[in-house]
Amino acid sequence: MTARVGVVTFPGTLDDRDTQRAVRIAGLEAVPLWHRDKDLKQVDAVVLPGGFSYGDYLRAGAISRFSPVMESVIEQAKAGMPVLGICNGFQVLTETHLLPGAMLRNNHLHFICRDQKLRVENADTAWTADYRAGQQISVPLKNIDGRYVADERTLDELEAEGRVVFRYLDGNPNGSLRDIAGITNAAGNVVGLMPHPEHAVEPLIGTGRTDGLGFFTSLLKKLVNS
C-alpha cells in the first residue's frame, strides 16, 4: 500500500499543486487537505506548502496557525508524524511553536526569487535521509518574509543539538541569523525551510536539476521502513 502524504491548502496557498506533483514523482500518494477540515484522511505525513496564506495579514502564517486542520497537524506532529513546512509552511510551523524562532521581513525589504545554493547540515531527519551531511544542493528561493531569527540561547541550542538542517551558501539572501535556511525539531520529524524543494524535482522545470527530490524520497524510505 502506497504511503499517503497530505498537502494542506490555505486561502492564498500557491504551491500546493507543485507539492502534490513532487510527492507523486517520489512514488507517494498525494492527498489534498483543506484548511477548514480537521480530518487528515489517515495520511502518513503532512506538507504545509508555500504561498501567502490569508494574504500574510497580521504576520506571515499567523492566521493559518488557527485553521482547524492545524489542530490535527499539531497533535499528530507531537505524536511523531513527519511534517514538512516549505516557505509559508515554515512560517506556520514557527507560529504553532512546532519549531522555534520567527520569520521577519527580508533585511533588504525586497521580494527575492532566485536559485539558491544550500549546504545540508543534518541528514538524519525524516525529510533529509537521502542526502549526506555537507552535501551542496541548489533549489529555488522566493520570499519577502524569509529572515529567520531567534534569541541567542535558542540559536546556540539549535547548533549544539544539530537541529540546523540547511544553511545558505554563496551569500545570505535575506539576513537569516547564522545563515540558517531550515531547522528541525528535537525528534527530527518536523522540518521547516524557506527554499522550495518541490520546484526542483525534475529536469524540465525549476533549477533544471532534481536536488529537491531527496526530501520526498527520504520520506518514502522513512515510511516504508517504519
Automatic annotation (TrEMBL):
Pfam families: GATase_5
Keyword terms: ATP-binding, Cytoplasm, Glutamine amidotransferase, Hydrolase, Ligase, Nucleotide-binding, Purine biosynthesis
Keyword Oxidoreductase: no
Catalytic activity as recorded in UniProt: L-glutamine + H2O = L-glutamate + NH4(+); N(2)-formyl-N(1)-(5-phospho-beta-D-ribosyl)glycinamide + L-glutamine + ATP + H2O = 2-formamido-N(1)-(5-O-phospho-beta-D-ribosyl)acetamidine + L-glutamate + ADP + phosphate + H(+)
An example molecular function term from Gene Ontology annotations: phosphoribosylformylglycinamidine synthase activity
Active site per database record: C87 (nucleophile), H196, E198
Name assigned to this protein: Phosphoribosylformylglycinamidine synthase subunit PurQ
Gene that this polypeptide is encoded by: purQ
